[in-house]
Amino acid sequence: MADEARRRLASGLRLPVGFYPALATGIAVQVGAAAYGIAAQATTGVAVALAGVAVFLGVAALLLHRFSRVNGVRVDGLASQVVLAAGARASVVYLGALAVAIVAAFGSRWWLVAVAAVAAGVGCALGARHWWHAYRHDPAAHARGTSPRMLGLLAVVACLGCAALLVVGR
Amino acid sequence: MTGLDPLIHAPTRLQLVTTLSAVSEAEFATLRTALDVSDSVLSKHVSALVEAGYLHSRKGVHAGRRTTWVGLTPVGRKALHEHVAAVRRLIDAVE
């Protein structure tokens, strides 16, 4: 009976419309901006990278807010998937695509930067999709994740790091 | 029976903490729907478990209106695991 209520709650949860495309786009923009910014090695480059982080964090915050608003619940595991690409495969895809994008940006191969950015976005969205299916199957085992407070702290640290680079790069 | 927790042994309370183990926090009305209980019944159980340190609650806003968000504390999560383990031992002993 107790398990039935939990299953009823979990099976009723819905991702907001356009969740995966929006997540993929946010990550693709962030990876593309980071690759350009690092390769540019100038103040404007760091500003572009910082703008990419801001776009991604804005998309992530909007998606999590909409999820919470639609379902009346908050799931830290989902927040970790969205903000940190917490799954092993998603992390590997993200880091690999970022590395390829940076190398391609240094060589001014912008088509490859775009391909790598899209690959990062699609890989992370697929990782989130995989986690979502696992969560629906066994919610108790997958619900936990990094708390919003810690995610906020990490976001602030990331932005401060970019801002420090901006100041040092002047 | 060692390990059975009288605070969460009652069916509605067990349903409440089990349901909350699937999420980090749930809005009061969402819980009420999932558990199929009245406002007053849910409120009474939430208050008792918050007082025991098993749940935390905070005021927030959902869909533009003020509401209460409820979540399981680490103490509550541990109590649920221990209670479920005790129930399993009991079932094994009977079978």
Question: Which structural class is indicated by helix and strand composition of chain B?
Answer: alpha+beta
Q: How much beta of chain A, percentage-wise?
A: under 5%
Shape of chain B: elongated
Q: For the terminal residues of chain A, how far apart are their CA atoms?
A: 63 Å
Helix content of chain B: 55-70%
Task: Using a beta-carbon cutoff below 8 angstroms, give the protein chain pair with the largest interface and the number of residues from each chain.
Answer: A-B, 24 and 21 residues
Output the CATH topology of chain B.
Answer: Arc Repressor Mutant, subunit A
Indicate how many domains the architecture of chain A comprises.
1
Report on this model:
The complex is a heterodimer of chains A (170) and B (95). The longest helix of chain A is centred in the middle third of the chain and has 29 residues. Chain A has one domain. The model of chain A has no long low-confidence stretch (mean pLDDT 85). Chain A is built from eight helices and one strand; from the N terminus they run αααβααααα. Chain A is mainly alpha-helical. With 95 residues, chain B is an alpha+beta fold. Chain B has a single domain, classed as Orthogonal Bundle (Arc Repressor Mutant, subunit A), CATH 1.10.10. Helix content of chain B is 59%, strand content 20%. Chain B has five helices and three strands. In chain B, strands 1-3-2 form a three-stranded antiparallel β-sheet. In chain B, strand 2 and strand 3 form a beta hairpin. The longest helix of chain B has 21 residues. Chain B is elongated. The mean pLDDT of chain B is 89. The chains are: A mainly alpha (170), B alpha+beta (95). The interface between A and B is medium-sized, with 24 and 21 residues.
Summarize the structure.
The complex is a heterodimer of chains A (170) and B (95). By secondary structure, chain A is mainly alpha-helical. Chain A has helices spanning 2-12, 19-40, 43-71, 76-84, 88-106, 110-137, 139-142, 148-168; one strand at residues 73-74.
